[in-house]
Design brief:
The complex is a heterodimer. Chain A is α+β, with helices and mostly antiparallel strands. Helices cover 20% and strands 37% of the residues of chain A. Chain A has one domain: Alpha-Beta Plaits, CATH 3.30.70. Chain B has a single domain, classed as Ammonium transporter fold (Orthogonal Bundle). In chain B, 66% of the residues lie in helices and 3% in strands. Classes of the chains: A alpha+beta, B mainly alpha.
Chain lengths: 112, 434
């Protein structure tokens, strides 16, 4: 099993979510985050005082998937989240040791 | 025996109100005037929480409660001070043209009959309560300059001392019967000198004595909630109709003039600030429009009972631009007047007081004077003198008060408390829990 973390632009969330559920992804967790990569921040001005805002709002999507789905999930995310402009985000893949469903106690792939 | 004395009692009671031919009729309370004055008092009261929101939105989230509390609590402290002795000092029987005496301590003698010196057609208490709301908001204005770093305990004492030694005397000079600035013929319809210049210059003294916020000039200190600031500005605009309109102390044409020119000046100033900022900085900002509106309100305050609509438009257009440039100059002088009290109230109030010397017309208010543009050369000089006196007096006395408090109680919160924020450190509360 793998954990897939994707940082995407906030307005892309619905598109990514819909695309993933279409290919059979059953659940995900979403957090509002701030961050920057190569995309520069912006400047806000309040009564003549300039503030450089480096951190930009993004959305982090986390989901767990079986090995066989990983490639398809990544391609789906890339396609749905891409705008071609700087700041589109990144995807991280990491191994997962165990998954447990709290209600039933199921473990492993059955718990995804 | 009992029966006779009982009827005598009834007769004397029934005839108590009858005016005899020799005694002049007591001044009559006019219900229209009284109604307007009570409403105006309520409108001006609303300006203090309005100011709280205006300022509150401009500070960082961790200081929102500390900031609104400084305005809000003035309603408590100054109202009581006013009743106990403040009103007496400001408007009481004159002593040496500089202060009122304490005859009216605890509002003794301030009753429900009109008091012709100030309020010919409304109960004396209606005038008193109207003026109370001015006394409340004025020191609260200063808090913008020392936002995010002032000790609450010290602030409570500062409120009392500043009201006693700056506001009450200055109000007496300008509005009290016998006051020397009033006697000079200076015109201040609703408080350009007494409210705005006094607080604006006090803010300068305060910003200098208290020092800059930690991180000023290095880290971003942006407003946390401009929607709150805009709401505050809107409440100030609304309440100001009472501030200026009520200063006519009567309902009728003069109140109408004040109401109308107040609105015109504000609208013009909101536009001019927004447009100037758009041209210089590339964006028409919400904070700019709100600040411009306040600058227009400040500038028209001393002039509102003496100028007409077109003059008001010019005064407002100039105020928006002037105050915009004033606050941008702040960085040149290096003091942290956090919420631009000096630039808006000090500079705006000064412009308004001088503009009164230019645009005042007896055609608007026969009890006033003509200004420079209406053929009278002397008013502008008198206005200038009154402005300088207010500057000097407020600056020096505020400085003394603050230095004394710094020496005895300390003015600033500790560095750690400034980092944590006023809400938690001074009040043990959080503004937002979501």
């Amino acid at each position: 099993m793998k954990k897939i973390e994707a940082i995407v632009k906030p307005f892309k969330l619905d598109e990514v979510k819909n695309a993933l559920t279409k290919i059979g992804v059953q659940g995900m967790t979403v957090t509002e985050v701030k961050g920057f990569g190569r995309q520069k921040g912006h400047t806000e001005v309040y009564r003549g005082a300039e503030y450089k805002i480096d951190f930009l709002p993004k959305v982090k999507i986390e989901l767990i998937t079986g090995e066989e789905m990983v490639t398809q999930v990544i391609e789906t995310i890339e396609r749905a989240a891409k705008t071609g402009k700087i700041g589109d985000g990144k995807v991280f893949i990491s191994p997962v040791e165990e998954v447990i469903r709290i209600r039933t106690g199921e473990r492993g792939k059955d718990a995804i | 025996m009992k029966k006779v004395s009982f009827s005598l009692l009834w007769v004397s009671l029934l005839t108590a109100g009858v005016a005899f031919a020799e005694t002049p009729a007591p001044p009559k309370v006019d219900s229209g005037d009284t109604s307007w004055m009570l409403i105006s008092s309520a409108l001006v009261m609303l300006m203090t929480p309005g100011l709280a929101l205006f300022y509150g939105g401009m500070v960082r989230k961790k200081n929102v409660l500390g900031t609104v509390m400084q305005s809000f609590i003035a309603l408590g402290v100054i109202s009581i001070q006013w009743v106990i002795y403040g009103y007496s000092l400001a408007f009481g029987p004159d002593v040496g043209h500089v202060i009122g005496n304490l005859n009216w301590i605890g509002l003794r003698g301030v009753g429900l009959d009109p008091y012709p010196d100030y309020s010919a057609t409304i109960p004396h208490q209606a005038f008193m309560i109207f003026q109370m709301m001015f006394a409340v908001i004025t020191p609260a204005l200063i808090t913008g300059a020392i936002a995010e770093r002032f000790k609450f305990k010290t602030y409570l004492i500062f409120l009392i001392l500043w009201a006693t030694f700056v506001y009450d005397p200055l109000a007496h000079w300008v509005w009290g019967v016998g006051g020397w600035i009033r006697n000079l013929g200076a015109l201040d319809f609703a408080g350009g000198l007494v409210v705005h210049i006094s607080s604006g210059i006090a803010a300068l003294a305060a910003a200098i004595v208290v020092g800059k916020r930690k991180g000023y000039g290095e880290e971003p200190l942006p407003p946390h909630n401009l929607t709150m600031t805009l709401l505050g500005a809107a409440l100030l605009w609304f309440g100001w109709f009472g501030f200026n309109g009520g200063s006519a102390v009567a309902s009728g044409s003069l109140a109408t003039n004040a109401f109308v020119v107040t609105h015109i000046s504000t609208a013009a100033a909101a536009l001019s600030w927004m447009i100037v900022e758009w041209a210089y900085r590339g964006n028409p900002t919400v904070l700019g429009a709100a600040s411009g509106a306040v600058a227009g309100l400040v500038a028209i305050t001393p002039a509102s009972g003496f100028v007409g609509p077109v003059s008001a438009m010019i005064i407002g257009l100039a105020a928006g631009a002037l105050c915009y440039f004033a606050i941008n100059l702040k960085s040149k002088f290096g003091y942290d007047d956090s919420l631009d009290v000096v630039g808006v109230h000090g500079v705006g109030g000064t412009w308004g007081a001088l503009a009164t010397g230019l645009f005042a017309s007896k055609a608007i208010n026969a009890a006033g004077s003509d200004g420079l543009f209406f053929g009278n050369l002397s008013l502008i000089g008198i206005q200038a003198l009154s402005v300088v006196s207010a500057w000097v007096y407020s600056f020096v006395v505020t400085l003394i008060i603050l230095k004394t408090l710094d020496w005895t109680m300390g003015l600033r919160v500790s560095e750690e408390h400034e980092m944590t924020g006023l809400d938690l450190s001074q009040h043990g509360e959080s503004g937002y829990s979501f």
